[in-house]
Structure formats: structure tokens, C-alpha cells
Specification:
Elements lengths: L6 H4 L16 H12 L7 E3 L3 H14 L8 E3 L16 E3 L2 H14 L15 E3 L5
Parallel strand pairs: 1-2
Antiparallel strand pairs: 3-4
Helix pairs in contact: 2-3
Amino acid sequence: MEQLRSPALQLGMALPQEVVARGGRTREAGATGFAELMSRRHRPDAVFCGNDVVAAGAMEKAHELGFDIPCDVALVGHGDAPFASLVRLRPTTIRYPAAEAARAAARLLTERPDGREGHKTVQVEAEFVALSSV
């Protein structure tokens, strides 16, 4: 099984470990990761979360720890999840066209049914949606 790598690693760019908190894709992981980042000697000005669920957990933990979002730290999620409007402050997010990406993936599969041809990259436009957390 091929190990998935982040786009930054695919481009040969790696983030220093002191600015990364690894966890799952859950609210609990967001809360734990946020607390870890904010307990470090050099606190970040902004936190980018892997999805909006993680961002919601990070926002809850920020409130619990007394951090003001966005004054003390900006917070960005990813995915523009519909539930995000249910949290106290709606997290800023990255919106991407999932349906367009799915159509592109389906086209690739039908163009190469044997799967033997090389890799092909398809890009879709993402949108930065600035809301209440930046």
C-alpha cells in the first residue's frame, strides 16, 4: 500500500516539527493539537487545521483556555463543512469543489481502465472563505 504524502512533502518542502501537531481528524484531535501548540515556547499566530471538524475542536479548546480567536491566534479549517455554521464562531475555511474533483477522478478512471499508465495530476480551484476566525 502506498503511503500518502502531503502536497508540501511532494514538492520537497517539509514543515519544521516544532510547528506541527499531529493527531486524528476529530474534534478531540483538534482540541488536543491546539492545546499542544499553544503550550509551546513559541506560540503560533495562526493554526491551520486539516478539516473543519478539527478546527471546531481547536476553537472549543481556545475558548476553554482563554484565547481570543482571532485576536490571539487566527484559525483556519478545511472543507467548508455545513455543520461549521453551528459553532459559536464560524471558522475560516478553504472551500474546494468536491463534485468537480469527483468528476475529474471519474474521468481519469474511465480514460485509463487498466490503471497502467503513469500518474496524472488534475487541479481544481479552491476558495479561501474568510469568516470569523481570522
